Amino acid sequence: xxxxxxxxxACLLCACMSNAETISGNVVKTKNNMVTLQTEDGEKxxxxxxxxxxxxxxxxxxxxxxxxxxxxxxxxxxxxxEDDWVEITYTPATNEMQNAEIQEVIIxxx
Length: 110
Hints:
By secondary structure, this protein is of the alpha+beta class. Helices cover about 15% and strands about 45% of the residues. It contains one helix and eight strands, in the order αββββββββ.
């Protein structure tokens, strides 16, 4: 019985994850929780961030006054900005969702 429950849970998770797609491109516009992405072929796609959206970014460090490495800034920075090159994993829009929802964003440094 436990094996059947574990197997069905694993199948359900795989089914949910198989709906995710990955796309990369340049951020053209950001407003509130909406991100407009332009792909390499020129297509513009509107995507929506949620509370569950995660992101990774290569941190930029600068030298401190005594040669120690310190963070470049402690101020708030938005998740993505215009002209960022990103790779986004998202759930495509469906009848229930008007916009595609972003699951994960990877921001590439210049």
